[in-house]
Design brief:
32% helix, 10 strands, 329 residues, single chain, disordered N terminus, TIM Barrel, alpha/beta, eight-stranded parallel beta barrel
Length: 329
C-alpha cells in the first residue's frame, strides 16, 4: 500500500491508499517525478537508504515507515509541543526547549507538577513562554488544589494574560496526598462561571480536557478542545475519531519513546500507555526509532484529515524531533 501526493488539493498533500481494504498505513515517497539521491537527504544527514523505503511491522495492524514524511506543518494542522517542566527555579532548560521547538510548534503545553513531582507553576511558565512570543497552554490538575486554590490560579492566570488551559485529574503524587476537593468536571464548570472581564479577554478562558479512546461523557462536550490519550496505533485512533462527535478541536496524543528503559517504566507505571513490544524491540536496535515512529504517526494523523492537530510529547528528544519536522516541512 502506498500514499501519493495529489497536486491541486489542500497544501498539495492528499495521500491515498492503493491497496483496497488495507488498514495499514505505510508512508513512502511516491512523488510524480523521480527522486534524486540529493533530495533523499535532509541537510546531508545519513544515506538515502536510511531516509526512504524502510518499513517495519509493529503488529496489531500498525506499520512504521521510516522513510519520507509528508509536510506536517500548516495553518490548518497544529503541533502542540509539551515541554519538560522546570523542577528547579532556573527556567533555562524550558527556554531552550521553546527556542528549539519554536520553528515546528504552533503552541506549547506546560505541565503542572508533572508525574507527581513539584515543578514551577504552569501559569508562571506559560506567561514566560508568551513573553518569548509563543502561545502557551497551561495545564492545571485537580489533584493538588482545592476550590479556593483553583480560583486563585484563575485570578493569577488572568493577571498574567494566560487564557488557554488543559484541565486534568493528575497522576498519583510522589509525596503527600491527593486533594479530594476538585474534579475536572468541577474545574470546567468553575472556569465557565469565571467573570469574563476578569479573565482579561472578551472571550473568557479556553479550556481543553482529555479523553481516552472511549465514548465521550456528555459533560466534556462543554470543553473547547480534546487532548486524546497517547497511543501507538493510528488505525485505532482513527476508528475512535470517526465514532465521536465533538464541536471543538481534537488533538491526537503522540509521544516519543526515547529509550527501552523509559518504555518499560511507562508501561509499568501507566498501564493505559503500554508501549508495544515490537516498538520496544525497534528502539533497542536503533535509539532513533522512537523519533521515527512519532514523526511517522504525526504524518499519518495529518493525512487522515480527522484531527485538528497533535499533542506531541518529545521528552528529552526534542532536538531530534524539531530537526526532523523542520526538515520535512
Amino acid at each position: 500500500m502506498l500514499w501519493w501526493r495529489s497536486p491541486g488539493r489542500r497544501n498539495g498533500a492528499l495521500w491515498r491508499r492503493t491497496t483496497a481494504g488495507s488498514q495499514h498505513l505505510v508512508l513512502a515517497d511516491v512523488s510524480h517525478e523521480p527522486v534524486s539521491a540529493d533530495r533523499r537527504r535532509c541537510r546531508g544527514r545519513g544515506p538515502a537508504s536510511r531516509r526512504f523505503g524502510d518499513v517495519h511491522e509493529l503488529g496489531n495492524g500498525v506499520r512504521l515507515g521510516t522513510g519520507f514524511y509528508p509536510q506536517v506543518m500548516s495553518v490548518e494542522f497544529e503541533v502542540i509541543c509539551e515541554v519538560e517542566p522546570a523542577t528547579r527555579s532556573d527556567l533555562m532548560h524550558v527556554r531552550h526547549q521553546i527556542g528549539v521547538l519554536s520553528k515546528v510548534a504552533t503552541a506549547f503545553l506546560i505541565p503542572d507538577n508533572h508525574l507527581g513531582r513539584a515543578t514551577v507553576s504552569s501559569v508562571a511558565v506559560a506567561h514566560e513562554v508568551s513573553q518569548m512570543g509563543g502561545r502557551a497552554i497551561a495545564c492545571l490538575n485537580a489533584r493538588d488544589r482545592n476550590l479556593l486554590g483553583f480560583r486563585r490560579d484563575l485570578l493569577t492566570a488572568a493577571a498574567y494574560g494566560v487564557d488557554d488551559f488543559l484541565f486534568v485529574y493528575g497522576d498519583r503524587p510522589a509525596s503527600g496526598f491527593r486533594s479530594g476537593d476538585l474534579t475536572v468536571r468541577g474545574m470546567l464548570r468553575e472556569a465557565r462561571s469565571f467573570p469574563v472581564g476578569l479573565s482579561g479577554t472578551t472571550r473568557g478562558f479556553r479550556v481543553a480536557v482529555t479523553s481516552g479512546l472511549a465514548p465521550l461523557p456528555t459533560w466534556k462536550h462543554d470543553a473547547d478542545a480534546l487532548f486524546v490519550q497517547v497511543g501507538f496505533s493510528v488505525p485505532k485512533l482513527l476508528d475512535w475519531r470517526t465514532s465521536v462527535e465533538f464541536r471543538g478541536s481534537v488533538f491526537a496524543g503522540v509521544m516519543v519513546v526515547p529509550s527501552v528503559a523509559m518504555a518499560r517504566k511507562l508501561s509499568a507505571d501507566v498501564p493505559q500507555l503500554q508501549v508495544p513490544e515490537d516498538v520496544i524491540a525497534l528502539i533497542e536496535q536503533d535509539p532513533d526509532a522512537g523519533v521515527e515512529l512519532a514523526c511517522s504517526m504525526i504524518a499519518e494523523i495529518r493525512a487522515s484529515g480527522l484531527f485538528d492537530g497533535v499533542h506531541l510529547i518529545p521528552v528529552s528528544r526534542y532536538r531530534e524531533v524539531a530537526s526532523r519536522l523542520e526538515c520535512e516541512a
